[in-house]
Amino acid sequence: MSLLRWLGLEKEQPAAGETETVRKISRELEAMDPTQARYIAAFAYILSRTARADLHVTDEETATMERIVREAASLSEQQAVLVVQIAKSQNLLFGATEDFLVTQEFKRIATREQCLQLLECCFAVASVDEHISGEEENLTRRLASELGISHPEYIGVRSQFREHLSFLKKG
Questions:
Q1: Per-residue pLDDT for the chain (171 aa), expressed as one digit of tens each?
Q2: Where do runs of H (alpha helix) occur along the chain?
């Protein structure tokens, strides 16, 4: 819940299924089609959620998220940096309450293929240091479940990053 809403000062009511995080990033992308902006906002937030799985977002994870968002949305570098920074800030501030809601919003507006693409991008963020921790692997499994991705589909995506899974590494 936002501080303004908690204080009873927020005037704008969210659209059904839309969260404050998605709206904030969407406003930054006003030149885009609103549906596309909501998609990118939720996409970036979920990448940020993955990066924070171990409670720390590295510069390498941030750069990877910026590249992925830039390529996925055909944004300028400046726009991608802004979107990722807002997503990271929102995740840090509201993650406990927004995580599931944003993922459900993404599931509502995305195709099945887009959900699978997002899961693959989450693994790319988690593996940027060539090590997918137990926390990161557990989060990607939870994301797959929240997105309605079957276990075999999840294993198929995860297998692309098999060499980075910490539980499969020696020593």
A1: 453 444 344 545 555 456 777 677 666 677 778 888 889 999 999 999 999 999 999 999 999 999 999 999 888 888 899 899 989 999 999 888 899 999 999 999 999 999 999 999 999 999 999 999 999 999 999 999 999 999 999 999 999 999 999 776 555
A2: 3-7, 20-28, 34-51, 59-73, 77-109, 112-126, 134-146, 151-158
| Long-range Cβ contacts of 22-31 (<8 Å, 24+ apart) | 22/102, 22/105, 24/86, 24/90, 25/83, 25/86, 25/87, 25/90, 28/79, 28/82, 28/83, 28/86, 29/75, 29/79, 29/83
Structural domains of the chain, with CATH: 19-168 (1.10.3680.10)
Q: Which two tokens stand for residue 63?
A: 């750069």
pTM of the model: 0.82
